[in-house]
Structure formats: structure tokens, C-alpha cells
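Issue 218. Parser rejects a valid record. Input:
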Amino acid sequence: MIDTKDIPAEYLKGILEIARSCHEITGAYCQALKEDQPCWSDASQSQKDTVIAGVAFYILNPEASASARHDSWLAQKIADGWSYGKIKNIKKKKHHCMVPFHHLPVEQQAKDYLFRAMVNLAIREGEVH
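Output the parser choked on:
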């Protein structure tokens, strides 16, 4: 997982803004799916760090696929002690998306595609150098 202390100060503000935007937009999508996702200001630092790591992943790998990011997310979750559970449970470290990308329902895959598109748009718009 990328530590924000490792991000050069001149890039940090832009990366945090992109992360916040990605979180809020995917949060709106989650609402449509009837899934809980707190707004950025209410999200835990762990949740924010996951989003920031996703942004950094695409900045470092702009041609990466949505499935590649999911694989990266999955590996980090496993390293942090998470496992599959039918229902997401933060306290028990269970998550319903702890499966290979091609096994995710299309609605869950869509979140990865949306996230990728948002970060790549920010890169094209020059929000990150």
C-alpha cells in the first residue's frame, strides 16, 4: 500500500483531490446498487488509503486494465488479512469482492472501470504530472 508520506508534496494535493472525487463518484454508484459507502469525510483512513493507492496505481500504470487494478487491490487485501465473505464486514475483514475480476458481477466490475476512467481523465486534464 502506498503511504501518503511517500508521495512528493507537489503531487499530494492533486492525488488527494482525484482520490476524493473517485471515492464520491463510485460512492454514488454504490448508492444506486444499495451498497453502503461513507462519504470521503466520513471514510476511515484505511478506506482513503485504498482509494489513494488506486489513484497512484493508475498514475504509475496508465495503460493498466480495470482487472489489473482489481488484482492489485485483491493482493493488498489478502496481505492485510482480508478474505471472502458474502457480505462486506470491515471488523471481520470480509469482503464480497475478494474474487478474481472475471468472477465479479458486472455491477462490481463497473466500479473498477469507472474508477479507471476518472483517474485517466484527471491525468489527461493535467491534474497530475
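Fixed in the parser; the record now loads. The chain has one domain: 6-124.
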